[in-house]
């Protein structure tokens, strides 16, 4: 159960090597989270992430989880919930893909869609059912600003996040009044250290596992850039407020509200 301050005492991260997922886990451990499950493909990176969180005072377990193996989700994730209640599930897995390659290789595009949408729908429904059965908990899903409007530069990735975003909103409505809180998080371009990249005059790559590849946008010309730490801070704040939607940075809400209404011929020519 959440403590008297509303902080989750147990956390399940789907996408156990996600930079945003791990940054969020570190913040929550500092706020009294004591049990963490990291679900992901077995790898040295997953083991290192678990060791890092253990060093911060949490009891950490890893579990083999593959977003594409949807037939295993009910069994794999169900076992975690039999170990005890989970106060928060963070769905943080996903892949940005490679737009140019994916357009020429349909199977690669399908992998992006199956990972980011189909796999997330499967895992999200399994966890939502378990949270509802225990009568409490939060399901936090990392979407992306890329899903707000189709862009030539990343429409395959963006379409998968658009579907995930709508699914999460609908799931939140379905679970309203059950004791389960559902929150969708919409980051802009996520880079490890935005300030350093700006100073170098470079461009960034999308966050592996969440966020979104808006890497065609020069940092000096966009308010959309953020970092895993900033997204983690916004998630913690959103949990405390029981928000349903979180934009990171917050200015994105106004930016995207305006961009939605730009005529398509003009939007095609914009550097967004």
Automatic annotation (TrEMBL):
<dbReference type="GO" id="GO:0016491">
    <property type="term" value="F:oxidoreductase activity"/>
</dbReference>
<comment type="similarity">
    <text>Belongs to the short-chain dehydrogenases/reductases (SDR) family.</text>
</comment>
<dbReference type="InterPro" id="IPR002347">
    <property type="entry name" value="SDR_fam"/>
</dbReference>
<dbReference type="InterPro" id="IPR020904">
    <property type="entry name" value="Sc_DH/Rdtase_CS"/>
</dbReference>
<dbReference type="InterPro" id="IPR036291">
    <property type="entry name" value="NAD(P)-bd_dom_sf"/>
</dbReference>
<protein>
    <submittedName>
        <fullName>Decaprenylphospho-beta-D-erythro-pentofuranosid-2-ulose 2-reductase</fullName>
        <ecNumber>1.1.1.333</ecNumber>
    </submittedName>
</protein>
<dbReference type="Pfam" id="PF00106">
    <property type="entry name" value="adh_short"/>
</dbReference>
<keyword id="KW-0560">Oxidoreductase</keyword>
């Amino acid at each position: 159960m959440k403590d008297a301050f509303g902080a989750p005492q147990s956390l399940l991260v789907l996408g156990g090597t996600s930079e945003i997922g791990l940054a969020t886990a570190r913040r929550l451990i500092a706020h009294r989270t004591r049990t963490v499950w990291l679900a992901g493909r077995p790898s040295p990176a997953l083991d290192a992430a678990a060791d890092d969180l253990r060093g911060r005072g949490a009891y950490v377990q890893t579990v083999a989880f593959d977003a594409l193996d949807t037939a295993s989700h009910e069994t794999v994730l169900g076992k975690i919930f039999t170990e005890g209640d989970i106060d928060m599930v963070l769905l943080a897995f996903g892949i940005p893909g490679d737009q140019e390659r994916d357009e020429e290789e349909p199977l690669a595009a399908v992998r992006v869609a199956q990972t980011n949408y189909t796999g997330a729908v499967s895992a999200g429904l399994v966890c939502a059912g378990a949270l509802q059965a225990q009568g409490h908990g939060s399901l936090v899903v990392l979407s992306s600003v890329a899903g707000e409007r189709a862009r030539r530069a990343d429409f395959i990735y963006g379409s998968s996040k658009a579907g995930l975003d709508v699914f999460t909103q609908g799931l939140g409505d379905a679970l309203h009044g059950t004791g389960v809180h559902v929150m969708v998080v919409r980051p802009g371009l996520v880079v490890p250290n935005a300030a350093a990249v700006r100073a170098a005059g470079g461009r960034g790559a999308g966050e592996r596992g969440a966020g979104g590849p808006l890497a065609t946008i020069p940092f000096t010309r966009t308010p959309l850039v953020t970092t895993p730490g900033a997204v983690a801070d916004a998630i913690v704040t959103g949990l405390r407020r029981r928000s349903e939607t979180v934009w990171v940075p917050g200015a994105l809400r106004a930016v995207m509200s305006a961009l939605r209404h730009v005529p398509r011929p003009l939007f095609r020519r914009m550097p967004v």
